Amino acid sequence: MCGMIEGLQKIGHEQAVIAGIDINDDRDCFPEEISFFPVIYNNEELPFPVVGMSDAMPYESTRYRDLDTYMVEIMKSEFKKKIDEAINVFKPHIIICNHLYLITSYVREIVKDIRVIGLCHGTCLRQLKSINFEKEYILSNIKELDLILALHNEQKEDIINLFDINHNKVVVIGSGYNDKMFYNENYKTNDRNINITFAGKICKSKGLKSLIKSIDKLEYTKDSIKLNIAGTGSDESQYKEIFNVSEDCRYEVDFLGRLSHKELANLFNKSNIFVLPSFYEGLPVVVLEALACGTDVIVSDINGVKEWMGESINNSGKISYIRLPKMKTTGVPLKSELPYFEEMLYRELDNRIRNILDNDECKSKLNMSDKTWNGLANRVNNILDKMV
């Protein structure tokens, strides 16, 4: 979202931001030209951690499924204070809300004379399908939004069916990455040691156990393969379960914790292969970031990703897709499906490694200008121009 804010600022839009943050979070997180109205969690008014859109977040969070009626009411109350303040001070022409969920529904309920757009990231749809939290309230209010922005066409169809709305109210905009931070630094790939990297939340739905098991099948010398896992997880039991699997892997597995964007870009540039074996995603920006750094990518065939990447990237030889296993519920695969998924992942890893070892070349570059923050902002700007 910060990338879209920066891109729209370059175009010339005046913007203000309302966001929930922890009492200890930095409040100087936007340029001074952008007004910030923070809703503070973990204080007297909201005495619990920030509510996360996924059950496992990379920071301390409250799950939506654990909110009671009182917690919902005080959260709405604190957001209303900031919404009223922002409207009085900033006087927006359009309000863009992240996630088709509780707070976006509440904004639509209380704001009647300003157009409200909802931006879907995918996790909101997963919550609606997996828990009954405020479901009817959310469905009825999201349906009344002026417009919904979707990541890809399959998500658009999902939104139309779930909320029973006209297809003209949903527009596909895709996603974007920061090309000033993530770019190819022309590292050579002739090192006989292979660095494989994952970046994201440390949780089971990311397919990390399957990734580690697939790497363990590789038949190379013990010191020639290394798996880097960048990210954190708030679910201690899931983290421990994944860590325990890594302990049995014949190759080194390095848990790096949370990295800054600069550190992550550096890691991608020094990595040979980036793997995202997730069982559920929206439209993962991290895939764009890895490709921009020239890194080969293996990703599970998540709905919409192949379509969004487009023919040029898909035919570049830089990215390959692993068929998803059948799911028990959203993001939870059937155990009987995992051996085949892990075998396919192992084979693709082995093919990529052999190809890298056989070539003494710099990483190839891709034209990804339409996938940048500026590209995303331009697409959103075209939509806003039609609404103002």
TrEMBL record:
Domain of life: Bacteria
Protein name stated in the entry: Glycosyltransferase
UniProt-recorded Gene Ontology molecular function terms: glycosyltransferase activity
Keywords: Transferase
Gene3D superfamilies, A to Z: Glycogen Phosphorylase B
Glycosyl transferase family domain segment(s): 186-310
